[in-house]
Model the fold of this input.
Amino acid sequence: MLLSRTLLKRHSVLPGFDLALGFTLLYLGFVVLIPLSAAFLKTFTMTWPAFWDAVATPRVLASYRLTFGASFGAALLNAFFGLIVCWVLVRYDFPGKRLIDALVDLPFALPTAVAGIALTALYAKNGWIGQFLPFKVSFTPLGVFVALTFIGLPFVVRTLQPVLEDLHKEIEEAAATLGASRWQTFAKVIFPILTPALLTGFALAFARALGEYGSVIFIAGNMPMVSEITPLLIITKLEQYDYQGATAIAVVMLVSAFVLLLAINALQAWTRARQGR
Amino acid sequence: MSATAQTLSAPPARAGVAPRRIATATTEPVWVKWLLIAVALGFLTLFLFVPLAIVFAEAFKKGAQVYLAAITEADALSAIKLTLIAAGIAVPMNLVFGVAAAWCIAKFEFRGKNLLLTLIDLPFSVSPVISGLIYVLVFGLQGWFGEWLRDHDLKIIFAVPGIVLATVFVTFPFVARELIPLMQAQGTEQEEAARVLGANGWQIFRRVTLPNIKWALLYGVILCNARAMGEFGAVSVVSGHIRGQTNTMPLHIEILYNEYQFAAAFAVASLLAGLALVTLVLKFIVERRVKSQLAVQGDRSE
Done:
């Protein structure tokens, strides 16, 4: 009763608001908010220098560089190829297209541990792909990049797809009528419309890659200072019973993730505005 | 429309000047088209199809007997059982939550709705490792309830309840996320009509809302289940890796792999890869149902 009286903006004849919202808030609180707040409260018990010592040692800084760098690179690669894949799936017809369209979601459905061992086997020195490469991929930072590319692959395709499908053919015809070449039409008419969605997809892939653990640890080799990602460092600290150190690094990652979440929300609002909705 | 597009994109049979100019005005030249298709397929082959294929190839590399032995061995079976238990508890819990959250968000206008939507999505942006860590901070020996739990001889971390909790956390938004946009698009008219005709809350949900959302509900459950069974990072932190007791399938794969039992590791992995493929097939079917359901409702409301 209290919830509906204080929160409802408009009276509704439908029942169940108090029960549904009450349960939602309770469940959200116990499963998500209280445990998450534990991470922040734990770091509040640390002094500022102790916190700084935990999150800014050379080994931790090296892991940030690798995690953020490889995530950024993988998201960039996915943005480029994702645009091509999406274009091909929306605009062209070829045999097996619907099967391929469905398989794009594989990284969402395939458990990360399975992806991890599969990629490691592929890119190992004697693996299906690794044997043809002149340089090492498995057990190097390049392996981290490959794994993060795999898990971020669907994001750009799936955020671009509805926007490209909704794109009106008329504006392309108008551009052509006005004398634009096909490339000019793409670069000056189509691409600007796709930009917000492309950035959203990029940000989603980047955010997902930052926290990724399962697929990376198999292929990375996990050498401190070289190929050790930040999530692994959190686990290492936990295994050494350094709960404060682990939590401090976790808070740094959580804050970066939340900042990205805000950026993604803003990008999505921009996408909707660009589409005129 | 599609017919004209096809004739335009097809190379003109008798190389007339005019048709060719039209053809390049709103479609790409044929060589660009096939180059783009080749690049897209090459990228997907390298990063999607080959990794999927190698799972099954490695699993059967040493023959069907090794494969069968790997998935029927006692530790593997207990890992499969624990995975089913964790998903069997986590998915129904998040299903109930998803329906409740979607009901209040989609059918009512209230203050703080956008904040609630953001908070529901929160677990998606939390690293799996951190999802496990926060439960260690609450229920672990050094955590908030650590001593109390020890005094009462209860174990959550490094035991099955912790694995279930971590799984619930990482699959938290799936069902709600599928239902909310659909139910918002459907509006409240049908439910209000049922109310005016004298239906009670349960009848409205059971007879009006549920038939409208059943495919999206199933879709959410499928995605939720796939993630629940495949979760690795979060479960890894809270599990303690006790063989035969707190090992789920993904954790069992890791142990086998680290022991250089590659064929066995890929055999168990192939079960999860099979689950992923089933998930994609179901997703494909259900997605089409949701689309046609939305189209029907769109026609009805016009």
